[in-house]
Structures
1.
Amino acid sequence: MQRKKVFITRKIPQAGVALLEKSCDVMINPEDRPLSREELLAKVAEVDGVIGLLTDKIDAAFFDAAKNLKGYANYAVGYDNIDVAEATRRKIPVSNTPDVLTLATAELAWALIFAVARRVVETDAVMRSGTWTGWGPLQFIGLDVSGKTLGILGAGRIGAAVARMAQGFGMPLIYYNRSSNPELEAQTKARKVSFDELLAQSDFISIHAPLTPETRHLFNRESFSRMKRTAVLVNTGRGPIIKEDDLVWALRNGVIAGAGLDVYEFEPRMAEGLSELKNAVLLPHIGSATNSSRDGMAELAARNLLAMLASARPPTILNPEVLG
Ligand code: DGY
């Protein structure tokens, strides 16, 4: 049988590449940077399958360019970069990488919660600057976490994992989600609430909803104004769920107490003024950046693509209706 041609839009862990190389000719973008739109469209012209990233736009023009395409596997759990309806219309299977990064991302949400609450980054900078004069009763007072109310936006896999971890800190849990999550409620006594209630009652809010037209800019001036002034907002989901200029306004004016961000509205850029704020902890989209998660994502993306190329059922297909 003729070997299928596969293109990977950026270097990924070898675990996934090795799986593909057993039966496919694999080409990989040799440079460790996202391809420009023109480069991407040119590279996919002759290939049967593509593994791409959240920075690659997979839309009608992409499918037009990739005229031999039998499947597209996203190297990410989030798939707002894919026009799934368009793929489905063309009967092209597309997939994502759930589960393998759930705990890593949930752990990073906790890292941000604690980093903001206890001013970890700000006070680390004080030590490095050599300006600390010794212990003082009024220095660097932060926020308590244990016993405070945690609000989860989006009670899918990652949101539920963050909620389960919160039990160790005795935190009452509330969540806002389109549908109820009875399993989460049974495990953690989490209570489903309206968005208004989530804003009004949470001491910490952690964002885990997908980016959709409904969630874009859900956090804006108006919603910040309905949060507690002592509240902290953490985002390890997708940047555009927060209107970032409005967040700068809220942090600067004490409308909320702090924010921990791993994702940004216009990555890799940040809103003006954000980097000057001591009550913000800012990370470069590293939610899934552990060895086991990234290897798991590579293997799962490869297994999805191999199934697509064999007209079999991909383990985590997003549009199963295209399967015959
Ligand atoms: C995802 O998978 O969607 C993350 O944002 C990157 O790991």
Note: The pocket of (2R)-2,3-dihydroxypropanoic acid is lined by residues 54, 76-78, 101, 287-288 (CB under 6 Å).
2.
Amino acid sequence: MTTEKDRILIFDTTMRDGEQSPGASMTHNEKLDLADLLETMGVDIIEAGFPASSQGDFEAVRDIARRSKSSVITGLSRSKLEDIDRCGEAVRHAARPRIHTFISTSPVHMKHKLQMGPNAVLEAVGRSVAHARNLVEDVEWSAEDATRTEFDFLCKCIDAAIASGATTINVPDTVGYTHPDEYGGLIRALRETIPNADKVIWSTHCHNDLGLAVANSIAGAQNGARQIECTINGLGERAGNAALEEIVMAFKVRGDTLPFETGIDTTRLARASQMVSRITGFPVQYNKAIVGKNAFAHESGIHQDGMLKNTETYEIMKPEDVGVSKSSLVMGKLSGRNAFRDKLASLGYELDPDSLNEAFRRFKDLADRKKHVFDDDILALVDDQLSAMGERVGFDSLRVIAGSVGPQQADLSLRVDGELLEASCTGNGPVDAVFNAIRKIVNHEAKLDLYQVHAVTGGTDAQAEVSVRLNGEGIMAVGRASDPDTLVASAKAYIHALNKLEARRMKRLAA
Ligand code: KIV
Ligand code: ZN
């Protein structure tokens, strides 16, 4: 028997709420790439930024709106009319624009953050929504800190928002305070109390401070919410937001008791997770549900034995369902260009002819040095190539003396604005020597905030993937690179971060 399923709209806020987590900033081009992937994946609504917060955010929302085809594109705005105008200006280029406006409604936020009384807040709700509604047809209103708001006052505010033309009402658990019974009960009570509740779509937005964001969002859906706000990898303020991949797969796997469906192509979840992790430099926890490296790994003998007999013994979903290919061993040095292009297409990349040639050259190079080339190797290779495109400082070559007899030394050459520059430096270990050499060639004050190394795949010939976070005058930038040689990957990651930092600094100066 097939049960009728209700459609849940997936609202992705990785580029807005996600980007608000400290250190998770994204460049303009990274946002465009991510938006493209989210749209192809079937995300219904993409919150692309907070247009009034900076010129960069405005331009990102505007350019994502211009390229969008099917997804609704929205930006966040406070209740100030200038913010709403700015947001309207950014999203108006979208095929389906939305303005998302919010104001705090809880006593603690009204008193200490807004320094406004309830009447003034109520008045701002009506005014802001009506103003937004004059600019676009699709207006979402959020009651910030709704779960700590007095119920009667929340009803009054929502009532005012609906009367002024809001089409979606969002009930955020801003501080991750609620739990499933309570949150589900709140959504139900609001829908039963507010007279025009059936005229709008109800939405959840749950933070993860108590680790309950996904459970709370699902409880919201069970009680009538039909939009869920979430982020890839659960990125977001503090402990993060509800993880998109977990919600989508919970509905897919447990359709028997959770009769909901989404429009998400789940085979792109792993790719989206890797992309967000690469862009932000936030590693995905190994045991993270759905997209963690170990999510489909079976280590113990008993489990392996069960899996060999029947995969259903220990797997409730197939790795392929979330885009983790079963046999990810892909190609060797004899693989041809067409096979390589097909492989890239299956991984979600369509490169122009020049970029394809360059990627193929890099692949051959890697296949010469590494026995087995896996999907993850190819993803790392292409991501590296794309992120290094058009950068001012480029890697040329590196030779390092390492080992227990010091001093460790790095002889490095970089291309800076097309000119080849060289430096030799020693350091407290080979990585320090490499970074000292970069500093000698490209003089800068930025401090190294984070240095991380992961193996892209298993095996001693695995590529090292290095993340570097630099912090210069309050501007942060994450660089990532991979190479079979950890020190080369380290140099490239540092250079990548440096280029991003410079681009951001220039942008700030221009603004
Ligand atoms: O957490 C929150 O309350 C928000 C709103 C502004 C939607 O992010
Ligand atoms: Zn939030």
Note: The radius of gyration is 25 Å.
